[in-house]
Write a structure and sequence with these properties.
Layout: H1 2-24, E1 27-29, E2 32-37, E3 40-46, E4 52-55, E5 59-60, E6 63-68, E7 79-83, E8 90-91, E9 104-106, E10 113-114, E11 127-130, E12 136-137, E13 150-153, E14 159-160, E15 177-180, H2 183-187, E16 204-207, E17 210-211, E18 214-216, E19 223-224, E20 237-239, E21 246-247, E22 260-262, E23 269-270, E24 283-286, E25 292-293, E26 306-309, E27 315-316, E28 329-331, E29 338-339, E30 352-355, E31 361-362, E32 375-378, H3 382-386, E33 389-390, H4 395-398, E34 401-403, E35 409-414, E36 424-426, E37 441-446, E38 466-472, E39 483-484, E40 489-494, E41 502-506, E42 512-519, E43 524-529, E44 535-539, E45 549-554, E46 560-566, E47 572-579, E48 583-591, E49 597-598, E50 604-614, E51 619-628, E52 634-645, E53 650-659, E54 666-672, E55 685-687
Parallel strand pairs: 3-6, 4-7, 6-8, 7-9, 8-10, 10-12, 11-13, 12-14, 13-15, 15-16, 18-20, 19-21, 20-22, 21-23, 23-25, 24-26, 25-27, 26-28, 28-30, 29-31, 30-32, 31-33, 32-34, 35-38, 39-41
Antiparallel strand pairs: 1-2, 2-3, 5-6, 16-17, 35-36, 37-38, 40-47, 41-46, 42-45, 42-47, 43-44, 43-46, 48-49, 48-50, 50-53, 51-52, 51-54, 54-55
């Protein structure tokens, strides 16, 4: 009896299992294979012979089609167009992968999830519109879609997976355009689960059909999330509201069109690689609210010329400013105790470094490759400097002229227009401040309200703490509208169209050799024209392999024109004119009576070393050494006359200076035309540097 009962139970169980198998078994309808769960169907396979344009039905066998299963249409290479009905909520992993000739996909308004690799390898796909219903785009969803040039992402998307639009080399996609309708929805997308280098924006971001160039982030946004504007080439400027506290990892990675950004006082963290390879950025002020600058945050920002790091920053990440080729000056706030490895590695044009007395450690290679550092402004004493622990390969910093007990000044700016500039408290002004004034062009900054004389040159360490902007309505677009520039002056220019030529007008005061060149990371071409506008000469990159430099003998009173354009694209550069003196003063330094180099002018007797080069014909040289007190009062001068100095030769001599009273605070070296003409005829060099 028990055996019979047991057999009956087993039979019933097998019957139940058999019924279950029948319920879950695959069915076919035309080219589709599907399974049913409850009353809903999932397409699991498609006949690989399917070709052309197909519209997936919303029902199969009277069951509502709600999902396209994993790999369902994989390798259906004959398909050219797919329309997915609104009934479908899920597109599975690899659902349409390697459909190489699939050129068009219409995703229904019911889809919420696009699975991992769903359309990977669909080479023929050129554009995709993702509806508002979609919340998740899986990892590698459109990976290796080489033909994809346009993506429209709906407002419902909250997560885009790792490498969703990446190509085969796992670096960047060939996407040209991304279309969105709500910037706030875009900024709320979570990109953080991608650990490599995915493409979010591709090249151009469109908001409601308009190319995004000048973007204002909406109030209330608290974070610019990781990868939010990754590789967004169209972006040139961005305004960030005070509600933002965090700029995430790679947020503006490779936005090489970005030239202007203001970081508000609310931001506390700048993430890793946040502005990596933003080659258009020219200067950055990091406010006191920021405490952390991530690794490689400004890596390879070639046009960055000046950096001021706020007083609350405690951490500067590894390689934060590495290979910023255009960087000439950096000021590091007083909360930083450690400068990390490679922090400024390879900043080959860095000349001025300003640091506080709170620095305790400078790690390996922090300033390696910074071969042109001239001056370090250090707030502490020489004894405190000697207590800093310098790790390996930072000789470029330690061998520079150290200005101990450096004092900051507060500089203010009269813009002479409606725009305003914040005061700067620093040891000097390292780059020329820029300001917009409608169609007017900024000539330069003057140390007097009458705008008399020439504009000051930068870096500026002069005694005037108020500078006044000079403007012109000339545009530089033609010879007739050329910008006027004087000798020993510099102007900052930003081009707005590719191939744009900017013209300058120059009238020399003396029959002399003049030098014209640009500085910055942009590749420039330069042309010199006569008063009749005929070309005299031109140059590509004799300056430093990137910037042009023209050196030419000019006639006093004649009008000359200089034309400058970028080799490609748009960007910013600084144009410099120099009147070549009879002699070029190379260096002024001080040492003790035994010849040991000193970082500051000592009390008592010392030696002043002056190096100069004769750049004219063989002639006598009259080199002058002027002395000044701490309040800039003239103390006296010394001079030396060298007979028959050969042209092109460089000489160095030492003058003994008696500073027993300790009232000599500054020295200045220059040359006179002769004893009969006490007119300065060369550049001047000061110690300490002005």
């Amino acid at each position: 009896m028990k055996k019979k009962l047991l057999l009956t139970i087993i039979t019933l169980i097998l019957g139940v299992l058999a019924i279950g198998v029948v319920t879950a078994s695959a069915a076919t309808s035309g080219i589709y294979t599907y399974t049913v769960s409850g009353s809903k169907a999932t397409i699991t396979d498609c006949d690989t012979s399917a070709s052309g344009a197909i519209t997936i039905p919303n029902k199969l066998g009277n069951y509502k089609v709600v999902a396209i299963g994993d790999s369902a249409f994989e390798y259906c290479t004959g398909l050219t167009s797919i329309t997915i009905p609104d009934s479908v909520t899920t597109i599975g992993d690899s659902a349409f992968s390697d459909c190489a000739f699939l050129a068009s996909v219409t995703i229904g308004n019911g889809v919420t999830t696009i699975g991992d690799g769903a359309f990977s390898g669909c080479d023929g796909l050129t554009s995709i519109t993702i509806p508002d219903s979609v919340t998740t785009i899986g990892a590698s969803a459109f990976y290796y879609c080489d033909g994809l040039t346009s993506v429209t992402i709906g407002n419902g998307v909250t997560t885009i997976g790792y490498n969703a639009f990446g190509n085969a080399d796992n670096l960047t996609a060939h996407i040209e355009s991304v279309y969105i309708t709500d910037i706030e929805a875009w900024l709320n997308i979570d990109f953080s689960n991608r650990t490599s280098t995915p493409s979010c924006c591709g090249a151009n971001l469109y908001l409601n059909g308009t190319l995004v160039t000048n973007l204002t982030v909406p109030d209330g946004i608290t974070s610019i999330k990781d990868y939010a504007f990754y590789s967004c080439d169209s972006l040139t400027s961005i305004t960030i509201p005070d509600s933002v506290t965090t700029i995430g990892d790679s947020a503006f990675y490779h936005c090489d069109g970005l030239t202007s950004i203001t970081i508000p006082d609310s931001v506390t963290t700048i993430g890793d690689r946040a502005f990596y390879y933003c080659t258009g950025l020219t200067s950055i002020t990091i406010p006191d609210s920021v405490t952390t600058i991530g690794d490689s945050a400004f890596f390879d920002c070639d046009d960055l010329t000046s950096v001021t790091i706020g007083n609350s920053v405690t951490t500067i990440g590894d390689s934060a400013f590495s290979y910023c080729d255009g960087l000439t000056s950096v000021t590091i706030g007083n909360s930083v105790e450690l400068i990390t490895e490679n922090a400024f590695y390879g900043c080959k044009n860095l000349k001025i470094v300003a640091i506080s007395a709170n620095i305790k450690y400078i790690r390996n290679d922090a300033f390696n490759g910074c071969n042109n550092i001239e001056t370090v402004y250090y707030e502490g004493s020489e004894e405190e400097w000697n207590e800093i622990l310098f790790y390996n390969r930072n000789e470029n910093l330690t061998n520079a002229d150290i200005i101990y007990n450096a004092v900051k000044k507060t500089y203010r700016f009269e813009t002479n227009c409606e725009a305003t500039l914040d005061d700067i408290t620093s040891y000097g002004i390292f780059t020329m401040p820029t300001v917009a004034n409608g169609e007017m062009i900024l000539i330069g900054w003057y140390d007097n309200a009458a705008l008399s004389g020439d504009p000051v040159t930068f870096p500026y360490f002069g005694d005037a703490t108020t500078l006044y902007a000079g403007w012109t309505d000339r545009t530089g677009e033609s010879f007739e509208d050329a910008l006027i520039i004087n000798a020993n002056q510099q102007q900052s220019i930003t081009t707005t169209s590719s191939g744009q030529m900017v013209y300058f007008e120059f009238v020399p005061n003396r029959n002399k050799t003049y030098r014209f060149y640009t500085t910055g990371s942009k590749d420039t071409l330069g042309y010199l024209y006569s008063s009749s506008k005929s070309q005299i000469t031109s140059d590509d990159d004799d300056g430093d392999g990137n910037n042009f430099m023209i050196e030419y003998d000019l006639t006093a009173g004649q009008t000359y024109y200089i034309g400058i354009k970028l080799y490609s694209g748009t960007g910013s550069f600084v144009f410099v004119t120099e009147e070549m003196g009879d002699y070029l003063i190379n260096d002024l330094s001080v040492c003790d009576m035994s010849g040991n180099s000193l970082g500051a002018i000592p009390k008592g007797e010392f030696l002043a070393s002056i190096s100069f080069t004769n750049i004219e014909t063989n002639r006598d040289a009259v080199i002058v050494l002027a002395q000044y007190t701490a309040d800039n009062q003239f103390k006296g001068l010394m001079y030396i006359r060298s007979k028959d100095v050969p042209k092109g030769s460089t000489m160095e001599f030492f003058l003994p200076v008696d500073n027993t009273n300790g009232d000599i605070a500054r020295l200045k070296a220059f040359s006179w035309a002769s004893f009969g003409s006490l007119v300065p005829v060369s550049n001047s060099v000061s110690f300490p540097a002005e």
